[in-house]
Amino acid sequence: MAPKHESNQCPMESILGQIMGPWTPYILWLLSNEESLRFGQLSALIPDISAKVLTDRLRKLEASGLVHRDYQPTVPPTVYYSLTDRGAELHEVLQGLNEVALRWDAEDRKKRLIPVTEIIAAE
Amino acid sequence: MAPKHESNQCPMESILGQIMGPWTPYILWLLSNEESLRFGQLSALIPDISAKVLTDRLRKLEASGLVHRDYQPTVPPTVYYSLTDRGAELHEVLQGLNEVALRWDAEDRKKRLIPVTEIIAAE
DNA sequence: CTGTATCCGATATGATACTG
DNA sequence: CAGTATCATATCGGATACAG
């Protein structure tokens, strides 16, 4: 499958292409709080995600080396997901985004404006 | 239009929802280098983007307060786009992502691996 | 010049059912 | 438990034509 666009001299877009899917930053955040999480735990922590999409996200994160998948062929099988070093580093960088998001939100609410984090939802 | 997902306790996803579209980080980067850019200039600097998508991105960035649109009702009209303070701040934060992307890329190439920034393109 | 309107195909997501 | 398969739907991006 070819990407929707290429070669625009913007390396960060490649990274964003990997974290950009819905739920992905949240998955990274959840994994950053635990040594590891099993598929079912992630599924329970993100009630609105379907198994298919959760699988897609995890496979993509695994392919890009951000998440490690530890498959234990027990019966029934148990699978543990954890952040790789890169995954942890990416999560650290994303904290800057989170702080900005929270601060803007607070500013907007103080001014009784629609918070920037809700603008998309309000479209 | 409703968003694809909501309310997952992850503020940064709201921000990412705004910068996540293809081209958007690049647009922010272009605007960060200039006082302002006109629609046609942006269009020329991003040859592969269609007018429709460029308009969509700019409208979204404007709605979220990241970009300022200065419409001059001359004949023909001239429109200048520039970063707001928030847009500039977001761009700063994104530089961290860019640096990580470039470093990982260099590491992967040294090891003769497929660079992480090309994994999506290789799918 | 700076867009808008429209149609269309590609892609992504969601729901459901099913399996090793 | 941890997914996969399938189908239906929704959204997105691209191309073209056109307008104030």
From TrEMBL, chains A, B:
Q: Which SUPFAM superfamilies match?
A: Winged helix' DNA-binding domain
One Pfam family name is HxlR
Q: Does the keyword Transcription regulation apply?
A: yes
User: Which superkingdom does the taxonomy of this entry point to?
Assistant: Bacteria
Segments forming domain HTH hxlR-type: 10-109
Gene3D superfamilies for the chain: Winged helix-like DNA-binding domain superfamily/Winged helix DNA-binding domain (1.10.10.10)
Going by the UniProt record, its keywords in alphabetical order are: DNA-binding, Transcription, Transcription regulation
InterPro entries per the record? HTH_ArsR_DNA-bd_dom (IPR001845), HTH_HxlR (IPR002577), WH-like_DNA-bd_sf (IPR036388), WH_DNA-bd_sf (IPR036390)
PANTHER family, sorted: TRANSCRIPTIONAL REGULATOR, MARR FAMILY (PTHR33204)
**Designated name of the protein:** Helix-turn-helix transcriptional regulator
Annotated organism of origin: Sneathiella sedimenti
